[in-house]
Amino acid sequence: MTLLVDTAAELRAALAQRAGRVAVVMTMGALHDGHRSLMAAARGLVGEAGTVVVTVFVNPLQFGPGEDFARYPRTLDADLEVCRGAGVDVVLAPAVEEVYPRPQQVTVDPGPLAAQLEGAVRPGHFGGVLTVVLKLLHLVGPDVAVFGEKDYQQLVLVRGMVADLAVPVEVVGAPTVREPDGLARSSRNRYLSPGERTSALALSRALTAGVRMAATGRESVLTAARAVLDAEPGVALDYLELRDPELGPAPERGPARLLVAARVGATRLIDNVDVLLGGA
Ligand SMILES: Nc1ncnc2c1ncn2[C@@H]1O[C@H](COP(=O)(O)OP(=O)(O)OP(=O)(O)O)[C@@H](O)[C@H]1O
Ligand SMILES: CC(C)(CO)[C@@H](O)C(=O)[O-]
Ligand code: BAL
């Protein structure tokens, strides 16, 4: 049975009834197969005797002025069905006032990486993300927290916060789930018109084109990926970058990450993939 709670007190009471390890999957709702895969990973980590908690909360602190906070899809009934289907034990879907009973005075400083890539386009975004992630970790008290690689910079920053602030939780990354044609699953995909949906494919196709050039080196990877994006007039590129797996400067050889963000009409999409530079 999946229990829905909307306050910290109810959550504490529900968790007090249960034994075993606790895993949390934090989401903003509008759940899809990407989220389902995180729930399955969470269950795998704690086992049938453990507890899987999913949080559904559209966090105002991580949206900038002019972003889509107001129109972000809120589909709690459908989300509950997804959680039931995935065998989730507890769903925490709090109101904004429950999470922020007063205007937040104390926030997490996410450090210099938060000003790059996504943070360069969305100033303040990762301060808002890390603040709510830390708060939800305190509310749930999990042994393990599962985050998707689709939001790769978020995953790196959460790992950094947990290490730097000695937060007692294990952070596990889960691979990106894609549509059959390669588009990364994302709640924001539902904003796309059919034409934009076709244009949006350029992001994953660009990453694939880049990966194919991995043996030839950094410049070839970026050139091949950029050519795909340049050929798609429906895509306005925010960034295309190669970094190391911790999002420092890309090495000449070895593991790296190719990241892209672009606007397709009014919708902003991100994607990334790992690349082994310079061949095996
Ligand atoms: N396609 C996906 N594959 C794996 N994990 C995903 C995928 N999409 C989202 N996630 C993960 O689910 C968690 C919650 O993300 P969120 O609710 O913002 O979904 P989203 O689809 O990324 O939404 P948005 O479209 O607003 O970015 C995050 O850890 C995120 O990385
Ligand atoms: C981690 C998160 C739930 C915090 O609001 C959000 O950034 C997301 O959905 O990736
Ligand atoms: N998926 C990350 C949350 C956000 O875009 O605000």
Describe the fold and architecture:
The chain has 280 residues and is an alpha/beta fold. The chain has two domains: 3-174, HUPs (Rossmann fold, 3-Layer(aba) Sandwich), CATH 3.40.50; 189-277, Pantoate-beta-alanine ligase, C-terminal domain (Pantoate--beta-alanine Ligase, Chain: A,domain 2, 2-Layer Sandwich). Helix content is 36%, strand content 21%. It contains nine helices and nine strands. The chain has a six-stranded parallel β-sheet with strand order 1-4-3-2-5-6, sandwiched between helices. Strands 7-8-9 form a three-stranded antiparallel β-sheet, with helices on one face. Helix 6 packs across helix 7. It is globular, with a radius of gyration of 19 Å. The termini are far apart. The model has no long low-confidence stretch (mean pLDDT 97). Bound molecules: adenosine-5'-triphosphate, pantoate and beta-alanine.
Topology:
Elements (H helix, E strand, L loop, with lengths): L2 E3 L2 H9 L5 E6 L5 H14 L4 E6 L19 H10 L4 E3 L3 H4 L18 H4 L3 H16 L3 E5 L3 H13 L5 E5 L19 H19 L5 H13 L4 E9 L10 E11 L2 E11 L3
Parallel strand pairs: 1-4, 2-3, 2-5, 3-4, 5-6
Antiparallel strand pairs: 7-8, 8-9
Helix pairs in contact: 6-7, 8-9
The structure holds adenosine-5'-triphosphate, pantoate (PAF) and beta-alanine (BAL).
